[in-house]
Amino acid sequence: MFKKILFATSASPACDNAAKVAFDLAKRNGAKLYLFHVLGVPSRGFSTTVRDLRSGEEESVDTDYRAWVEEEVRTTYAEQFKEYGHNTVLQLAVGVPATEILRFARKEEIDLIVMGANTRDDDPESARARSVVGRTMEKVARLAKSPVLIVNRPCTTCWNLFSNIVYCTDFSKAADHAFRFASDTAKAIGAKLYIFHAFDITTARLGVFPGQADIERHIEKANEKIRERYLSQMGDYDNYAVEIWEGTPYVEILKFAREKQADLIVMAHHTRDMEPEEAPIGSTVEQVVIRSACPVASVTRA
Asked: Per the database entry, which stretches of residues form a coiled coil (predicted)?
């Protein structure tokens, strides 16, 4: 399924959960894993002095410093290197993290990028505490050509490959791109695919919230759209189910994923009808990323 996986890490505890998923996915897929770490941002122009992302101190990027960082990263992931080191390449870079991650992903034609929701802080709870995702993750998810798998919490159900995939749609154009990734992944590994839509009943029109008749009409229309847009593409693959709930979308998605013991949630990066380069991460996907017990794949392109 994946031949080249890029695991972008600050090598801090905030990335530990993502590391477990990245190495496990690479091992299960027999994929080449690039362990990518940015040393720091140059203090000015093309200066060889950088501000270390972990310590915040200025460091001169010479041979000794690179060797020290490489040793630190290898020590951090020593157990994983023992199991899958033969097909893992440690790559160091200097620059703005998001820019360097995207540049490397394009150059190597990466199939999947794995990241934590927030890599700046040593506190793995930081993303959930602040209820916002990190800038690096947001920028990578917005501009990457490949899907970005975001891991924010320990995953207790996904160590044996993905078996229950929840694809969430609001019927936007971006959601159609995400569906292709979700269905291709499910078909490739034989996972059950749940096609899920949550009707947002919290948004009032002209000050009036939808009544039960409105909700039922919306559910009926949503069923028709799912048949036309998604089920028509499933071919002979019948290991799928369709569910439509009403409520606050991110809450319903999380409840549904928990009920189905999902090990992967697939969503579009945004829902607005605009170019991916300009679209901010959607509030629903952001809240799902922060609170989900399983990894979330953010997709911007087919």
From this structure: none
